[in-house]
Amino acid sequence: MKQKEIEVFADPTYDATFKMLFGKQTNIELTKSFLNTMLNFTGTPNEINDLKIINSDLIQEDVKAIESAIDVRCKTVSGQDISIEMQRRGEDYFLARTQDYMAKILSSQVTKSDGGKSYNLSMDKTYMLVISKAKLFIKDNAVVGDTPIMYEKTIVPMIKELGVEVPSNKMNWKFFEIPKFKNYIKNKEVHADSNLKEQWLDFLLNCSKSEETPENRNEIIKRGYEIMKIANWTNEERNNYELSKLKEAYNKLEKEQVFEEGKLKGEIKGEIKQIKMGTKYKISDDSLEKDLTHTKSLFKKIKEYLEDGHFDDTESQIYEHYEKDLLGKRDDFSDTSDG
Q: What is this structure's pTM?
């Protein structure tokens, strides 16, 4: 699809827009629909009839603990504690982080005054709903039996030997991977008669690509489109949205720079190793320097440094010794002259 010059609808997966949709008491009907649908509560005893948005900061008493917050947290009138987290980027540690979030939420429910009560009475049934724009269950987190279209996963503590959920369990995770939903929906058309879960995920996936509110959607989904219509926003809402996009772009650039720094450091240390080998086996300067891609004059100094009694230094020690000069000559790294 050709990129629009003017964004009519905002991307609802950014921090600011996601909270606009599901983190405001004024939009509580959307939040109820979203949670009932995504957690499979509709038509069950768990169905949410009313809820309240609460503080999403996860407070830890230990001063050394990492401060954290989730995107949206709410409590239902029946006592369920539900958190929603929108994850836009893949992070190797994200699944572990969701366990940290769950631990903090559960620990916050039990206070010193509850000491005489059983934990079962003090703690609420707790749910963490995660929507991810990146695949989560890959590499070291890959799951046996997973498929490219298995976009929904429900996780609870299990007794392995029996294959059943732990009695009185309070911990419930629900994960949705949008890239896998995209694979699943590829040959399907989403419309008003599609199940509401597919309509919600399609909304998160395609809202910002739309130029008008689709008519063939459930009314609650149409309401989501109207909230995401930028023309209806205040200046503050527009600024918050742009700030969310800028913050993400900055974080991405920062990570790319860190990656490039690490890659560059690895290349330089590899070439220092070549110099060490050349020094050990008395390879001539001309033969050695044909294989070097960085500035020759600096690497000659490193060779002299090694020959001056520092041969047992590691590549990392030598790199750190010359780090300022090496990084300062970054623009000359492709230069093979002696300049």
A: 0.73
